[in-house]
Amino acid sequence: MIRLGESAKLVIGVAPAVRVAGNVNGVIVDRIGFLDAVVHLGLGVVAGAPSVQGVALKLQTGAVVDGSDMADVTGATITALTADSLQSELDVDLSGYKRYVRAVVTTTFTGGTAPSIPVAEIGRAHV
What we know:
Blueprint: H1 4-7, E1 8-19, E2 22-25, E3 29-30, E4 36-43, E5 52-62, E6 71-81, E7 87-93, E8 100-110, E9 117-126
Antiparallel strand pairs: 1-9, 2-8, 3-8, 4-7, 4-9, 5-6, 5-8
């Protein structure tokens, strides 16, 4: 019998925090031995009254543990979430990826006074 803890790996890629506009590189994850993953992006309530907000996610992969060769994976994205308290998931077949993977979260705002929004990204890989 295989136990869930032996066949799955849960990683907080981008720690829950209040984010301002910009990019956040998630932790670099060694995907060796894992065949697929589910990446979850979750938002809280925006502050600062922007007229437009967006939080998007893309996956990158590379062969170097320090991430210096990371490149975007075509099609491995979550299109910008544009309202408060939204969530989205991305199912990923890891078979064509290099050894290391990370999520990059991009937050954008238009207008407002020092806008920010709580954001977190969590990934779950499976053997």
